[in-house]
Amino acid sequence: MSSEIGLNRDFHGEENLPSNRSSEEGGKDATLSRGRPFAKMGKKKEELRQLSGRSEGKVKETMHNDFWDHLKEQLTATPPDFSCALELLKEIKEILLSLLLPRQNRLRSEIEEALDMELIKQEAEHGALDVPYLSKYILNMMTLLCAPVRDEAVQKLENITDPVRLLRGIFQVLGLMKMDMVNYTIQSLQPHLQEHSIQLERAKFQEQLNKQPSLLDHTTKWLTQAAADLSTPPSAALDPPDSSNVAGPAPSEAASNSEPLSPTMVLSQGFLNLLLWDPENEEFPETLLMDRTRLQDLESQLHQLTILASVLLVASSFSGSVLFGSPQFVDKLKRITKSLMEEFKTRPEEAMKTVSEQVSQEIHQSLKTMGLAALSSENTSSLTGQLENIAKKENCVRSVIDQRIHLFLKCCLVLGVQRSLLDLPGGLTLIEAELAELGQKFVNLTHHNQQVFGPYYTEILKTLVSPTQALSAKVESL
């Protein structure tokens, strides 16, 4: 988690709630899952054995539902049994206290007094428990302590009169409030956590390096290959001759190959090469082993965006700016393509055949709705044929889009994501939001990695670039 917080500036926790439960009857605080009040139910062993064969989520949901049913039976009994309800009130009190800041001593004393469990227990035993007062006090305190985004959820609780549904709703909202507090704490401490993560990872790596001096061999080979890639003249076949009418010119592409070699350029090229890593190659750089899974995820995301942008580019060349001027139409084509990405991994031809049929149908329907002329049978055949050809790795459009996305990521490493978005290579404007997400993840990962292993990279790069350039561009961060 330390590493994840270090490279993900938007890191946050999420409250996991069963999807088939309403917001009013949502999940409870994790304390219920641990079974403190639930233990009072005396669940039969036979029933637990029946539940053991189900998924963990279903088991928890069933246990929670059984608990609330049991609570309802207790409260409607004659006389009412408040044993479980008192346990829940104790849990609520503890959660409210946990949401207070250290300086909020007055509120702490107020909660301790208003929710005095000994006094409440005595009132319950004598039939004098003021449930409406306790409910109102708890909701007022939740309104005071919750983030603005939770105001509406707390207000909805005020309209619930059934005590069981109210308690259930209170726990659901308190769970969200606890997560809000966790995320606030993470954001407040993130700079310190990031620095701690950097120092910790570097210290652990140095400890391993002391025991195994050859630990940087693969890293050295990786950077050496990156330097060689930059020193090799670009292939004349980088962009197919007929690709200009499809994707347009790439900004500063030629200029990037004429710049003098520098440590930053070599390292950036090395990071880009990781997105094309041969899974059979076991010489993965040691300094990036912890990030290998993340890099594989980014590679998969890049591949999906390549297919998505290729589909949109081909479709736009047949339907023109009228249809593609509609965000709703573009989103519909995106959903069609994204829904078949999993199938594309194993059966690309079948997936693209389905995409071509659905995209063609959507274009025809949209043209008809707008009162525009339908595509001719010849154009329809050409459209579906070009879309189906995207399944081939050597497809012209797909190759160009792939190169353009790599160029965008290279710009992100040098200029940052926002500046790179201002001058997108041709064919990528329709996936700007998706590119921004991919670029930010890539930049965050590489930036954190450089902060941890920058000193090692600097020493290696001294042997790969001229001393003057090494001094002018010391590898600390991009």
UniProtKB/TrEMBL annotation:
<feature type="region of interest" description="Disordered">
    <location>
        <begin position="231"/>
        <end position="262"/>
    </location>
</feature>
<comment type="similarity">
    <text>Belongs to the TCP11 family.</text>
</comment>
<feature type="compositionally biased region" description="Low complexity">
    <location>
        <begin position="231"/>
        <end position="244"/>
    </location>
</feature>
<dbReference type="GO" id="GO:1902490">
    <property type="term" value="P:regulation of sperm capacitation"/>
</dbReference>
<dbReference type="GO" id="GO:0036126">
    <property type="term" value="C:sperm flagellum"/>
</dbReference>
<dbReference type="GO" id="GO:0001669">
    <property type="term" value="C:acrosomal vesicle"/>
</dbReference>
<dbReference type="InterPro" id="IPR008862">
    <property type="entry name" value="Tcp11"/>
</dbReference>
<dbReference type="GO" id="GO:0007281">
    <property type="term" value="P:germ cell development"/>
</dbReference>
<dbReference type="Pfam" id="PF05794">
    <property type="entry name" value="Tcp11"/>
</dbReference>
<dbReference type="GO" id="GO:0010737">
    <property type="term" value="P:protein kinase A signaling"/>
</dbReference>
<feature type="region of interest" description="Disordered">
    <location>
        <begin position="1"/>
        <end position="58"/>
    </location>
</feature>
<feature type="compositionally biased region" description="Basic and acidic residues">
    <location>
        <begin position="44"/>
        <end position="58"/>
    </location>
</feature>
<protein>
    <submittedName>
        <fullName>T-complex 11</fullName>
    </submittedName>
</protein>
